[in-house]
Hints:
The complex is a heterodimer of chains A (349) and B (218). With 349 residues, chain A is an alpha/beta fold. Chain A has a single domain, classed as TIM Barrel (Alpha-Beta Barrel). Helices cover 48% and strands 11% of the residues of chain A. Chain A is built from 15 helices and eight strands. The longest helix of chain A has 25 residues. The radius of gyration of chain B is 18 Å and the shape is globular. Chain B has two domains: 85 residues, Orthogonal Bundle (Methyltransferase, Methionine Synthase (B12-binding Domains), Chain A, domain 1), CATH 1.10.1240; 120 residues, Rossmann fold. The model of chain B has no long low-confidence stretch (mean pLDDT 93). In chain B, strands 2-1-3-4-5 form a five-stranded parallel sheet, with helices on both faces. In chain B, helix 2 packs parallel to helix 4. Helices cover 58% and strands 11% of the residues of chain B. Chain B contains nine helices and five strands, in the order H-H-H-H-E-H-E-H-E-H-E-H-E-H. By secondary structure, chain B is an alpha/beta fold. The longest helix of chain B has 25 residues. Chains A and B meet through strand 2 and helix 8 of A and helix 4 and helix 8 of B.
Amino acid sequence: MTPKERFECALRHEEPDRVPVFFMAMAATAREAGLEIAEYSKDPEKLARGQIAFYERYKPDCLTPGTDISMTGSSYGTKTEFHEGMTLPTIAEYAVNEPEDWERLEAPDPRRAGRRGVYLGAIERISAKLGDEVPILGFIITPLTLSSWVAPLRRVVIDMKKNPDLLHKGLRTLTDSVKMRVETSIDAGISYFIMVTTRATRDVFTQEQYRKFGMVYDLEVLDYVIRKKIPVIVHLCGADPLLDMVATEYPIDGINWWDRGEKTYNLSEMKAKYGDRITLIGGVDQTRELILGSPEEVEQQAKDAIMQAADGGGFMLAPGCDLPPITPPENIKAMINAAKKYGKYPINP
Amino acid sequence: MGELEEIYSKMVDGIVTGDEDGIRELTQRALELGATPNEILKNGLTVGMTKISEIYDRRECALPELVLAGEAFYAGLEILTPVIASSGEKTETLGTVVCGVVLYDVHDIGMTLVRTMLEANGFKCYDLGKDVPPSEFIKRAKEVDADIIAASALMTTTMPMQQRIIEELKKEGIRDRFKVMVGGAPVSRDWMEHIGADGYGVDAVEAVQEAKKLMGVV
């Protein structure tokens, strides 16, 4: 099977030839092309080169071109500061600083604003070269998440309590903008999306708060994407994600979360609850084994994940969040090798 | 219930609901009734912060409530600070902490909460803000004779800066002079052990417990 066939098969909850390996590999791919993150982040050709080099070296089962939050933020008027080496760019100045700024926020040009053109240009290049072979996933950043990239998170949480109407105005603008960006991503060659929410976690918001300020907008965006018959995977950041809410109320095809975290469901628990209709994506701890462990430890954890959740299909082996740029290459290889060694279907003949 | 007791009880509620203006009035009133800043902190403001952190621990509230409680706490503290300075009243501190977000990282909401909780629990804190180079943590820690250096990293790309602080302390031959605490979303106890730090907190509440442990008070 090609990575694309394998990925699609797993997303349909069927058994491919083996367990696919999923990385949210963004700026981490710069090093594969011998680039510093700053140059990778500013040039569509270099961004594409990093992604293609990452694919050629490891042969993962999908690509997720991108860099970091400053790239998305730049479209909305945040100022970016670039650094040397493998350090991610940082937001030097936010677009929203006072509560009234939410009203002034405008939906930017979904093709060109900030570094949007870099992103789309890279997608076009990667898609032209690898589009038939490997799934290229586009990012959808949920409006509430995005609000905390255009404003400091402190501004968002204070306005949630003190100026909810103004915050809702900002979220309205961001939601409309996200839908426009979905369109331009599709035009550039995206045929699968990963919807990222870094805020649907109880250490940031209660379920009730997330429903009111997050979910209502997420569902609007999801509805928009689903009408186009495009599969969506949700990625939930955080130590205490609102998994039940998302798994039961979001019309999604797959879900990726930090399943090795302490306050959340592990893979087998999720498999029992939702595995019949949502593809589970995870199994390797990006805060411990992947960056600190030996290749043998990564292999063992990957094997354990496969044993927990691969049987019957609907599973992809993945870290619980984006691939840290400090991950040793041999640990990335260990994940791929583990999928080949232990993930051949049928898993339990 | 005496008037002061009633004020302290209202203060606790004021912190929990994040009522900045209410806390200002109550703090002022408590001073007028003759309470010392230490008494107001101990019986009112700190009790309120402990209560909100317990509510957060049970996940019955989240970041918005914690942030507003912190703002209310500082509204009271702002009134008390000049009184403390002019009265010469000694404040009891559990220890001195130099805290900040590491170089190339600008996500400071978590560190601000940690500082608030540490101060509410009797630590003296010097907050260096965000994007703080390792050398700055060490320079400040030496200047104020800190007990603890607390460094937060919110991205896997900036976590190595926590390690750099420890390496630089070793290079200067003063590793034993300070306890080093680390925290931040991608940081784990395993990472803490890997880089040879002394303490770790999964959130602001645990960070306080860890700091107390490091100071030998629990």
